Amino acid sequence: MSAKQSFASWFPVAVSFTLVLTFAEGRAQNAPSSIPPPQPATRPAPTPEQLAIQAASEKDHQRVMDELGIKALRRGADGDANSPNAANYDEAKADVYPKIPDPLVLNNGKPVTTAKVWWSKRRPEIVELFDREIYGRTPANLPKVTWEVVSTVHEKNGDVLVITKTLVGHVDNSADPKITVKIDLTLTTPANASGPVPVIMELGFSKEFMAMLAKRFPQFAATAGPGPTWQQQVLARGWGYAEYIPTTVQPDNGAGLTEGIIGLANKGQPRKLDDWGALKAWAWGASRCLDYFETDKAVDAKQVGIEGHSRYGKASLVAMAYDSRFAIGYISSSGEAGAKLYRHIFGEQVGNVAGAQEYHWMAGNFLKYAGPLTPGDLPVDANELIALVAPRPVFISGGATNGDGWIDAKGMFLAAAGAGPVYRLLGKKDMGTTTFPPIETALIDGDVAFRQHTGGHTPGPNWPTFLDFASRYLQAPVVPANTQ
């Protein structure tokens, strides 16, 4: 996908603020506080290409509603506090649906009391429900990906000598030659490593895309805070890092559902109601990156972690849930459709994700829960998505309500707590509490970890805590003393 295509796909008219916020996501890896919203005058007029993408997305969204027989959807929450549909930020009003699904009760009502029953019966039941109703089904026979090393560069990141490989994953498009999918990935490892190293892979945006945003929104060009970048913090542990661009696998809009890997799998035809959405497709791309790591002698492929923020936090959690090869996850500000309980009515809601600007992340069937059904009718919730990660370690992160309230830190904490019984059943440790902790409290002694930082919509403040947590599980090879 070109930088122009990526930008256009990411900037529908109705979400200009979301784009700016997501620009902050990419730039503010180390920012200590939230990014103020721009004044309306700073928002550029949409291009004809962006208007066409929005129109095509709305048309496909209506097609899905028609297939479901839904006349109208409930509105999602508004970020405008003066709107009659303003998002709820009052915790006293959040527990509209206080009873969440129990991950250790089978569909027939019988309790799950052994790990064997979890793996053989209950976990497959939960996966089926997420596939059918939430994220959609990944096709069984997807095309092969052939990886090409485009360049290998010896350079420095800070004071560390590194080797950076630029890679392209060529997806076989013989099923529909009109659709081309090329996965963008870079891999950086310490040049002096004595053996394969752990790698943390981030889902993020291309450098071209970020440069284009910086040009359009110069007020955000210098939002990064002081101190080492997340990449430098990873290198300081003796690990490597990778950066994967999900939009090179699947465009981030409804118009793109007949393109990318979803379009290729469907030969350019519209999705069925239980077909996969962009979150599943982005997760599939992350797994193909892991396929490559298994062939690279510089990488310890059994020690690959995944990190994503906001919508890419959602995709990273989905990747962890569906691919047991990922060793650990840093799930930052993932919110609704990620680690946040759908039943916790705080910040973003089902109606937002089911709307024309975000529905493409999900299965078509998900729209029912913003129409005739409610969040209380969902057969699963985010606690069960986190439970699918068990027994592997996962770190759930969010910012302060003032700056990151949309993603509902408490709703994510409650989901993490709700996954705890599965971790305990599998011989692991939960967070050690079901009481929402004071802000800046790190709960990292168990295998499910949580921390709410005082910054805004950024993963930056929690990188050091995540890396402390991850160091319990990931081990770099020992460098001989005479080479240090």
Question: What's a quick, concise take on this entry?
Answer:
With 484 residues, this protein is α/β, with parallel strands linked by helices.
Uncertain parts: 1-41
Under CATH at level 1, the class stands as: Alpha Beta
**Inertia-based shape:** globular
N-C termini distance: 41 Å
Spatially, the strands of the biggest sheet line up as 1-2-3-5-4-6-7-8-9
Provide the CATH architecture.
Answer: 3-Layer(aba) Sandwich
Overview of this protein structure:
The chain has 484 residues and is an alpha/beta fold. Helices cover 31% and strands 15% of the residues. It has one domain (3-478): Alpha/Beta hydrolase fold, catalytic domain (Rossmann fold). Strands 1-2-3-5-4-6-7-8-9 form a nine-stranded mixed sheet, sandwiched between helices. Strand 6 (299-309), helix 9 (311-322) and strand 7 (328-332) form a beta-alpha-beta unit.
Question: Which features characterize this protein?
Answer:
alpha/beta; Rossmann fold; nine-stranded mixed sheet; single chain; disordered N terminus
Ordered list of secondary-structure elements with their pairings:
Layout: H1 3-10, H2 16-27, H3 48-68, H4 115-134, E1 145-157, E2 160-171, E3 182-190, E4 197-203, H5 207-216, H6 230-236, E5 240-245, H7 260-265, H8 278-293, E6 299-309, H9 311-322, E7 328-332, H10 350-353, H11 382-387, E8 394-398, H12 401-404, H13 409-425, E9 448-452, H14 463-470
Parallel strand pairs: 4-5, 4-6, 6-7, 7-8, 8-9
Antiparallel strand pairs: 1-2, 2-3, 3-5
